[in-house]
Amino acid sequence: MAPSVLNDQYPAFPDNVPILPLSRLSYAKLLSNDAVESEKLFKASQDHGFFLLDLHDTPDGVGVLKNVETAFELGKSFFDLDVEEKKKVKLDANNIGYKPMGLMAFTDGKRDLTEICSVAKDAVLDPSVATVPAVFADERPFLGSLTHQLHSIATLILSTLAPKLDISYETLASLHSPSERSSTVLRFLHNPPQSISDSVPSRQASLAGHTDNGSITVLFNTLGGLQILPSDAEDDPANWRWVRPEPGCAIVNIGDSLVQWTGGVLRSAFHRVLYAPGAQTSCERYSFGYFLKPNENASMRRLREGNLVPELSAEEEEQEKDMPCYHEWHRQKTKSIMVGKNGVKRGGLPSRQGVLPKEVAVGGADE
Predict the structure, then answer these.
(1) Does the reported pTM lie above 0.85?
(2) What's the maximum distance between 2 C-alpha atoms anywhere in the chain?
Protein backbone atom coordinates (compact mmCIF):
# COMPACT_ATOMS: atom_id res chain seq x y z
CA MET A 1 0.00 0.00 0.00
CA ALA A 2 1.19 3.43 -0.86
CA PRO A 3 1.76 6.64 1.09
CA SER A 4 -1.24 8.61 2.31
CA VAL A 5 -0.76 11.28 -0.37
CA LEU A 6 -1.82 8.63 -2.90
CA ASN A 7 -4.59 7.12 -0.80
CA ASP A 8 -6.12 10.56 -0.25
CA GLN A 9 -6.85 10.88 -3.98
CA TYR A 10 -9.56 8.20 -3.84
CA PRO A 11 -12.89 7.51 -2.11
CA ALA A 12 -12.66 5.81 1.28
CA PHE A 13 -12.62 2.04 1.54
CA PRO A 14 -16.16 0.94 2.53
CA ASP A 15 -16.98 -0.30 6.03
CA ASN A 16 -19.62 -2.83 4.97
CA VAL A 17 -17.45 -5.51 3.31
CA PRO A 18 -15.86 -8.51 5.07
CA ILE A 19 -12.21 -7.82 5.96
CA LEU A 20 -9.39 -10.20 6.76
CA PRO A 21 -7.52 -8.57 9.67
CA LEU A 22 -3.80 -8.75 8.95
CA SER A 23 -1.06 -8.32 11.53
CA ARG A 24 0.50 -4.87 11.32
CA LEU A 25 4.25 -5.06 11.94
CA SER A 26 6.68 -2.26 12.69
CA TYR A 27 9.60 -1.89 10.28
CA ALA A 28 11.62 -0.15 13.02
CA LYS A 29 11.04 -2.97 15.50
CA LEU A 30 12.01 -5.64 12.98
CA LEU A 31 15.18 -3.72 12.16
CA SER A 32 16.04 -3.68 15.88
CA ASN A 33 15.39 -7.43 16.10
CA ASP A 34 12.54 -6.95 18.56
CA ALA A 35 11.61 -10.39 19.90
CA VAL A 36 7.85 -9.79 20.12
CA GLU A 37 7.66 -8.30 16.62
CA SER A 38 9.74 -11.16 15.21
CA GLU A 39 7.35 -13.68 16.72
CA LYS A 40 4.37 -11.80 15.25
CA LEU A 41 5.98 -11.99 11.81
CA PHE A 42 6.58 -15.73 12.13
CA LYS A 43 3.01 -16.38 13.27
CA ALA A 44 1.58 -14.28 10.44
CA SER A 45 3.75 -16.18 7.95
CA GLN A 46 2.19 -19.42 9.20
CA ASP A 47 -1.42 -18.30 9.71
CA HIS A 48 -2.28 -16.32 6.56
CA GLY A 49 1.06 -15.91 4.84
CA PHE A 50 0.24 -12.18 4.63
CA PHE A 51 0.92 -9.20 6.87
CA LEU A 52 1.18 -5.41 6.77
CA LEU A 53 4.56 -3.75 7.19
CA ASP A 54 4.35 -0.20 8.56
CA LEU A 55 7.12 1.86 6.98
CA HIS A 56 6.23 5.15 8.69
CA ASP A 57 8.43 4.62 11.70
CA THR A 58 11.95 4.92 10.25
CA PRO A 59 13.63 7.46 7.94
CA ASP A 60 14.54 4.63 5.57
CA GLY A 61 10.93 3.49 5.46
CA VAL A 62 9.71 7.01 4.72
CA GLY A 63 12.29 7.16 1.93
CA VAL A 64 10.87 3.96 0.45
CA LEU A 65 7.36 5.41 0.55
CA LYS A 66 8.44 8.55 -1.27
CA ASN A 67 10.11 6.49 -3.98
CA VAL A 68 7.01 4.31 -4.27
CA GLU A 69 5.03 7.47 -5.06
CA THR A 70 7.39 8.07 -7.97
CA ALA A 71 7.03 4.44 -9.05
CA PHE A 72 3.25 4.82 -9.14
CA GLU A 73 3.62 7.81 -11.44
CA LEU A 74 5.97 5.84 -13.69
CA GLY A 75 3.43 3.05 -13.85
CA LYS A 76 0.59 5.40 -14.71
CA SER A 77 2.67 7.02 -17.46
CA PHE A 78 3.46 3.62 -18.94
CA PHE A 79 -0.13 2.36 -18.88
CA ASP A 80 -1.32 5.59 -20.51
CA LEU A 81 0.75 4.76 -23.60
CA ASP A 82 -0.87 3.44 -26.75
CA VAL A 83 -1.27 -0.33 -26.53
CA GLU A 84 0.98 -0.91 -29.54
CA GLU A 85 3.73 1.08 -27.83
CA LYS A 86 3.33 -1.00 -24.67
CA LYS A 87 3.49 -4.23 -26.66
CA LYS A 88 7.00 -3.28 -27.76
CA VAL A 89 8.01 -4.41 -24.25
CA LYS A 90 7.96 -8.10 -25.14
CA LEU A 91 6.75 -10.66 -22.59
CA ASP A 92 9.22 -13.52 -22.06
CA ALA A 93 8.85 -17.02 -20.65
CA ASN A 94 9.53 -15.73 -17.11
CA ASN A 95 6.59 -13.29 -17.32
CA ILE A 96 9.03 -10.39 -17.60
CA GLY A 97 7.82 -7.64 -19.92
CA TYR A 98 4.34 -6.35 -20.77
CA LYS A 99 1.23 -8.50 -20.32
CA PRO A 100 -1.91 -6.90 -21.78
CA MET A 101 -5.39 -7.45 -20.36
CA GLY A 102 -7.13 -10.61 -21.47
CA LEU A 103 -4.02 -12.70 -22.04
CA MET A 104 -4.87 -15.06 -19.17
CA ALA A 105 -7.96 -17.26 -19.31
CA PHE A 106 -9.84 -18.28 -16.20
CA THR A 107 -11.24 -21.78 -15.84
CA ASP A 108 -14.77 -20.37 -16.32
CA GLY A 109 -13.82 -19.02 -19.75
CA LYS A 110 -13.52 -15.36 -18.73
CA ARG A 111 -10.40 -13.30 -19.33
CA ASP A 112 -8.36 -11.27 -16.86
CA LEU A 113 -8.71 -7.50 -16.49
CA THR A 114 -5.13 -6.76 -15.44
CA GLU A 115 -2.30 -5.30 -17.46
CA ILE A 116 1.16 -5.81 -16.03
CA CYS A 117 4.63 -4.53 -16.80
CA SER A 118 7.48 -6.39 -15.11
CA VAL A 119 11.01 -5.00 -15.15
CA ALA A 120 13.76 -7.50 -14.40
CA LYS A 121 16.00 -6.94 -11.41
CA ASP A 122 18.90 -8.22 -13.49
CA ALA A 123 18.35 -5.56 -16.15
CA VAL A 124 18.08 -2.79 -13.58
CA LEU A 125 21.23 -3.72 -11.68
CA ASP A 126 23.44 -4.97 -14.52
CA PRO A 127 22.77 -3.65 -18.04
CA SER A 128 25.36 -6.06 -19.42
CA VAL A 129 23.06 -8.95 -18.48
CA ALA A 130 19.71 -7.65 -19.78
CA THR A 131 18.18 -4.46 -21.09
CA VAL A 132 15.66 -2.26 -19.30
CA PRO A 133 12.65 -1.55 -21.56
CA ALA A 134 13.29 1.60 -23.61
CA VAL A 135 10.39 3.45 -21.98
CA PHE A 136 12.15 3.04 -18.59
CA ALA A 137 15.74 3.52 -19.79
CA ASP A 138 16.09 7.03 -18.37
CA GLU A 139 14.79 5.79 -15.01
CA ARG A 140 17.28 2.96 -14.57
CA PRO A 141 19.28 4.74 -11.79
CA PHE A 142 16.05 5.41 -9.88
CA LEU A 143 14.79 1.86 -10.40
CA GLY A 144 18.16 0.54 -9.25
CA SER A 145 17.95 2.53 -6.03
CA LEU A 146 14.39 1.36 -5.42
CA THR A 147 15.38 -2.25 -6.13
CA HIS A 148 18.07 -2.06 -3.42
CA GLN A 149 15.58 -0.56 -0.96
CA LEU A 150 12.93 -3.20 -1.54
CA HIS A 151 15.47 -6.03 -1.63
CA SER A 152 16.60 -4.89 1.81
CA ILE A 153 13.02 -5.16 3.09
CA ALA A 154 12.62 -8.63 1.61
CA THR A 155 15.90 -9.85 3.07
CA LEU A 156 14.94 -8.39 6.46
CA ILE A 157 11.89 -10.66 6.34
CA LEU A 158 14.12 -13.64 5.49
CA SER A 159 16.61 -12.80 8.24
CA THR A 160 13.75 -12.57 10.76
CA LEU A 161 12.24 -15.88 9.67
CA ALA A 162 15.53 -17.82 9.58
CA PRO A 163 16.07 -18.26 13.36
CA LYS A 164 12.37 -18.96 13.84
CA LEU A 165 12.73 -21.78 11.32
CA ASP A 166 15.94 -22.95 13.04
CA ILE A 167 17.95 -22.45 9.86
CA SER A 168 20.82 -20.10 9.13
CA TYR A 169 20.16 -16.78 7.43
CA GLU A 170 23.20 -17.46 5.25
CA THR A 171 21.32 -20.40 3.74
CA LEU A 172 18.36 -18.25 2.70
CA ALA A 173 20.57 -15.35 1.60
CA SER A 174 22.61 -17.62 -0.69
CA LEU A 175 19.40 -18.65 -2.46
CA HIS A 176 18.58 -14.97 -3.21
CA SER A 177 21.87 -13.37 -4.18
CA PRO A 178 21.42 -9.99 -5.95
CA SER A 179 24.44 -10.83 -8.11
CA GLU A 180 22.97 -14.11 -9.38
CA ARG A 181 20.56 -14.39 -12.30
CA SER A 182 16.91 -14.59 -11.23
CA SER A 183 13.40 -13.68 -12.37
CA THR A 184 13.02 -11.17 -9.50
CA VAL A 185 11.08 -8.16 -10.81
CA LEU A 186 9.75 -4.71 -10.13
CA ARG A 187 6.11 -5.04 -11.21
CA PHE A 188 3.62 -2.36 -12.24
CA LEU A 189 -0.09 -3.36 -12.42
CA HIS A 190 -3.25 -1.65 -13.64
CA ASN A 191 -6.94 -2.58 -13.44
CA PRO A 192 -9.70 -0.55 -15.15
CA PRO A 193 -12.83 0.61 -13.30
CA GLN A 194 -15.74 -1.83 -13.12
CA SER A 195 -18.71 0.47 -12.59
CA ILE A 196 -22.04 -1.18 -13.38
CA SER A 197 -23.72 0.23 -16.49
CA ASP A 198 -25.81 -0.88 -19.46
CA SER A 199 -22.61 -1.88 -21.25
CA VAL A 200 -21.10 -3.49 -18.13
CA PRO A 201 -24.01 -5.33 -16.45
CA SER A 202 -21.84 -7.27 -13.98
CA ARG A 203 -18.36 -7.29 -12.47
CA GLN A 204 -15.75 -10.01 -12.50
CA ALA A 205 -12.39 -10.86 -10.99
CA SER A 206 -9.54 -8.80 -12.40
CA LEU A 207 -6.91 -11.42 -11.53
CA ALA A 208 -7.94 -14.95 -10.58
CA GLY A 209 -7.00 -16.95 -7.51
CA HIS A 210 -3.33 -17.88 -7.29
CA THR A 211 -0.30 -18.20 -5.05
CA ASP A 212 2.91 -16.29 -5.73
CA ASN A 213 5.60 -18.65 -6.95
CA GLY A 214 8.60 -16.75 -5.61
CA SER A 215 9.77 -16.21 -2.03
CA ILE A 216 8.66 -12.77 -0.78
CA THR A 217 6.29 -10.22 -2.34
CA VAL A 218 6.36 -6.59 -1.14
CA LEU A 219 3.25 -4.93 -2.59
CA PHE A 220 1.89 -1.38 -2.55
CA ASN A 221 -1.61 -0.37 -3.62
CA THR A 222 -4.01 2.43 -2.90
CA LEU A 223 -7.43 0.94 -3.63
CA GLY A 224 -9.20 -2.15 -2.39
CA GLY A 225 -9.58 -5.17 -4.64
CA LEU A 226 -7.09 -7.64 -3.16
CA GLN A 227 -8.83 -10.60 -1.52
CA ILE A 228 -7.49 -13.58 0.42
CA LEU A 229 -9.09 -16.98 0.93
CA PRO A 230 -8.58 -17.77 4.64
CA SER A 231 -6.59 -20.91 5.30
CA ASP A 232 -9.47 -22.73 7.01
CA ALA A 233 -12.16 -21.73 4.47
CA GLU A 234 -13.66 -23.64 1.58
CA ASP A 235 -13.51 -21.94 -1.79
CA ASP A 236 -16.89 -20.24 -1.82
CA PRO A 237 -17.55 -16.63 -2.93
CA ALA A 238 -18.80 -15.80 0.56
CA ASN A 239 -15.52 -16.89 2.16
CA TRP A 240 -13.13 -14.56 0.37
CA ARG A 241 -12.02 -11.59 2.50
CA TRP A 242 -10.96 -8.11 1.41
CA VAL A 243 -7.68 -6.49 2.41
CA ARG A 244 -8.16 -2.89 3.52
CA PRO A 245 -5.52 -0.48 2.17
CA GLU A 246 -3.55 1.15 4.99
CA PRO A 247 -1.56 4.32 4.17
CA GLY A 248 2.16 3.93 4.67
CA CYS A 249 2.05 0.15 4.76
CA ALA A 250 3.30 -2.50 2.38
CA ILE A 251 1.46 -5.79 2.03
CA VAL A 252 4.01 -8.59 2.40
CA ASN A 253 3.26 -12.19 1.53
CA ILE A 254 5.06 -15.51 1.53
CA GLY A 255 5.58 -17.32 -1.77
CA ASP A 256 5.63 -20.97 -2.79
CA SER A 257 9.43 -21.27 -2.70
CA LEU A 258 9.57 -20.77 1.06
CA VAL A 259 6.75 -23.27 1.49
CA GLN A 260 8.68 -25.81 -0.57
CA TRP A 261 11.96 -25.30 1.28
CA THR A 262 10.31 -25.50 4.73
CA GLY A 263 8.13 -28.52 4.02
CA GLY A 264 4.94 -26.54 4.55
CA VAL A 265 5.88 -24.81 7.80
CA LEU A 266 5.09 -21.45 6.16
CA ARG A 267 1.98 -20.58 4.17
CA SER A 268 1.54 -19.24 0.65
CA ALA A 269 -2.11 -18.23 0.66
CA PHE A 270 -4.49 -18.14 -2.28
CA HIS A 271 -5.37 -14.59 -3.18
CA ARG A 272 -6.94 -12.74 -6.08
CA VAL A 273 -7.83 -9.27 -7.30
CA LEU A 274 -11.57 -8.83 -7.59
CA TYR A 275 -12.51 -5.16 -8.15
CA ALA A 276 -12.29 -2.11 -5.95
CA PRO A 277 -15.30 -2.10 -3.59
CA GLY A 278 -17.86 0.62 -2.92
CA ALA A 279 -17.29 4.02 -4.48
CA GLN A 280 -13.71 2.98 -5.30
CA THR A 281 -14.97 0.74 -8.10
CA SER A 282 -15.24 3.74 -10.44
CA CYS A 283 -11.49 4.46 -10.13
CA GLU A 284 -8.49 3.27 -12.09
CA ARG A 285 -6.59 0.84 -9.85
CA TYR A 286 -2.79 0.81 -9.79
CA SER A 287 -0.37 -1.37 -7.84
CA PHE A 288 3.39 -1.70 -7.61
CA GLY A 289 5.46 -4.46 -6.09
CA TYR A 290 8.81 -6.16 -5.66
CA PHE A 291 8.66 -9.90 -6.30
CA LEU A 292 11.73 -11.58 -4.81
CA LYS A 293 12.42 -14.92 -6.47
CA PRO A 294 15.22 -17.43 -5.93
CA ASN A 295 18.36 -17.58 -8.03
CA GLU A 296 17.64 -19.40 -11.29
CA ASN A 297 20.00 -22.21 -10.26
CA ALA A 298 18.74 -22.44 -6.66
CA SER A 299 17.97 -25.94 -5.43
CA MET A 300 14.30 -26.52 -4.63
CA ARG A 301 14.98 -29.48 -2.37
CA ARG A 302 13.68 -29.20 1.18
CA LEU A 303 16.17 -27.59 3.53
CA ARG A 304 17.91 -30.05 5.84
CA GLU A 305 18.64 -27.72 8.74
CA GLY A 306 17.38 -27.47 12.30
CA ASN A 307 14.54 -29.24 14.05
CA LEU A 308 11.49 -27.36 12.76
CA VAL A 309 11.51 -28.25 9.06
CA PRO A 310 9.94 -31.73 8.91
CA GLU A 311 11.99 -34.65 7.68
CA LEU A 312 11.13 -36.13 4.31
CA SER A 313 9.02 -39.26 4.18
CA ALA A 314 10.31 -42.17 2.13
CA GLU A 315 7.97 -41.18 -0.71
CA GLU A 316 9.07 -37.54 -0.55
CA GLU A 317 12.71 -38.62 -0.45
CA GLU A 318 12.19 -40.48 -3.71
CA GLN A 319 10.44 -37.51 -5.31
CA GLU A 320 13.24 -35.15 -4.33
CA LYS A 321 15.82 -37.17 -6.25
CA ASP A 322 14.62 -35.48 -9.43
CA MET A 323 13.86 -32.08 -7.88
CA PRO A 324 14.86 -29.40 -10.42
CA CYS A 325 16.42 -26.00 -9.82
CA TYR A 326 14.11 -23.01 -9.37
CA HIS A 327 14.08 -22.04 -13.05
CA GLU A 328 12.71 -25.46 -14.09
CA TRP A 329 10.53 -25.81 -10.96
CA HIS A 330 8.85 -22.51 -11.80
CA ARG A 331 8.36 -23.58 -15.42
CA GLN A 332 6.74 -26.86 -14.35
CA LYS A 333 4.47 -25.08 -11.88
CA THR A 334 3.33 -22.60 -14.52
CA LYS A 335 2.68 -25.45 -16.96
CA SER A 336 0.56 -27.26 -14.36
CA ILE A 337 -1.53 -24.15 -13.78
CA MET A 338 -2.04 -23.77 -17.52
CA VAL A 339 -3.77 -27.17 -17.67
CA GLY A 340 -5.88 -26.44 -14.58
CA LYS A 341 -3.76 -28.16 -11.95
CA ASN A 342 -2.08 -26.64 -8.93
CA GLY A 343 -0.36 -29.03 -6.55
CA VAL A 344 1.41 -26.35 -4.54
CA LYS A 345 1.74 -26.89 -0.80
CA ARG A 346 0.75 -23.83 1.15
CA GLY A 347 1.54 -24.99 4.68
CA GLY A 348 -0.94 -25.04 7.53
CA LEU A 349 -3.83 -27.42 7.85
CA PRO A 350 -3.52 -30.70 5.92
CA SER A 351 -7.07 -30.22 4.60
CA ARG A 352 -5.88 -27.12 2.74
CA GLN A 353 -2.93 -28.78 1.00
CA GLY A 354 -3.08 -28.67 -2.77
CA VAL A 355 -6.67 -27.37 -2.94
CA LEU A 356 -7.48 -25.77 -6.28
CA PRO A 357 -9.75 -22.71 -6.05
CA LYS A 358 -12.74 -22.75 -8.39
CA GLU A 359 -11.51 -19.58 -10.07
CA VAL A 360 -7.90 -20.17 -11.01
CA ALA A 361 -5.97 -18.36 -13.70
CA VAL A 362 -4.73 -20.44 -16.60
CA GLY A 363 -1.12 -19.39 -16.99
CA GLY A 364 -0.30 -18.20 -13.48
CA ALA A 365 -0.28 -14.73 -11.98
CA ASP A 366 1.15 -12.55 -9.26
CA GLU A 367 -0.10 -9.69 -7.16
Answers:
(1) yes
(2) 60
